Amino acid sequence: MKTRITELFGIKHPIIQGGMHFVGLAEMASAVSNAGGLGIITGLTQQTPELLAKEIARCREMTDKPFGVNLTFLPGFANPPYPEYIDAIIQGGVKAVETAGRSPEQYMPQLKAAGIKVIHKCTSVRHSLKAEKIGCDAVSVDGFECGGHPGEDDVPNMILLPRAAEELKIPFVASGGMADARSLVAALALGAEGMNMGTRFIATREAPVHENVKKAIVAASELDTRLIMRNLRNTERVLTNAAVEKIVAIEHAKGEGLGIEDIRELVGGVYPRVMQKGDMDAGAWSCGMVAGLIHDIPTVKELIDRIMSEATVIIRKRLEGFLDA
Ligand SMILES: Cc1cc2nc3c(=O)[nH]c(=O)nc-3n(C[C@H](O)[C@H](O)[C@H](O)COP(=O)(O)O)c2cc1C
């Protein structure tokens, strides 16, 4: 399958693995790239730019295919040394960067001078248009379904993707709720030129996370996520657990008066405990509604091959079949 996304990133299949804190290590990114997609290392999971440089070198040893790095611009308090992270990306010869969180505008000159293709993750049409205007090469349009931060507009992909298609000139991928061949074909029908998956890639053999995490995703249904931190305007979709129920109760009690201090210990520093130790109630961790569509733990290659072969069947048999009939 050839789209502007496969051409842009030099990949075989129009499938991207979104950056994921404490999941997007070299093992994850290289597995996706080796299977013909675009694997992404999560920049800030590496505590320093030097550690990111090492992770890029490690990934380079595991794959000779293109892979990217995610740079998440965090809200408020934390301020990592982004220019130095970008230096590590450039020196590591990485040619694709997924940005998220806030506009990458101030870093575009540095990224573009190095010939890096930038795909910015946006939860709205207006942010997508801004990304196009500042020179991003593509957009990852992240609907309300998504695991992680869906923004504050609550527009699901059934509306958001065709709206993006109406307005954007640069190519975009569908992100949020994507799991299988049906997702890919639907995304293409709605105007996207590929798809970005987060949650689905965690439930794979190669994902470098504790087995408990993979099992929790397989066990979860589409009803098992919650939105937290809405009153902080930092909404996050997470898998429900004991800690999340506590957060929801605190948020109900505090209402508009909620401050980050009220929930900090239930949301901060949680990822290593969940992803590495498998402590599933340690705190809130991102997970998409798409968990309801995830029923197995295949290898990344099995997953991607299955998506591509079933997509062919859906397009050639099911869809064309309606016309032939
Ligand atoms: C566990 C987890 C951690 C994530 N961490 C990040 C992150 O650090 N930066 C980022 O830009 N997106 C992050 N995301 C969002 C994903 O890159 C992707 O946009 C999202 O998962 C797509 O929705 P889906 O889960 O329905 O596929 C994370 C998602 C998950 C599930």
UniProtKB/TrEMBL annotation:
Pfam (any one): NMO
Organism of origin: Parvibaculum sedimenti
SUPFAM superfamilies: Inosine monophosphate dehydrogenase (IMPDH)
Organism classification: Bacteria, Pseudomonadati, Pseudomonadota, Alphaproteobacteria, Hyphomicrobiales
Designated name of the protein: Nitronate monooxygenase
Keywords: Flavoprotein, FMN, Monooxygenase, Oxidoreductase
Oxidoreductase recorded as keyword: yes
Domain of life: Bacteria
UniProt entry tagged with the keyword Signal: no
GO MF term list: nitronate monooxygenase activity
Record PANTHER family: 2-NITROPROPANE DIOXYGENASE, 2-NITROPROPANE DIOXYGENASE-LIKE PROTEIN
Gene3D superfamilies: Aldolase class I (3.20.20.70)
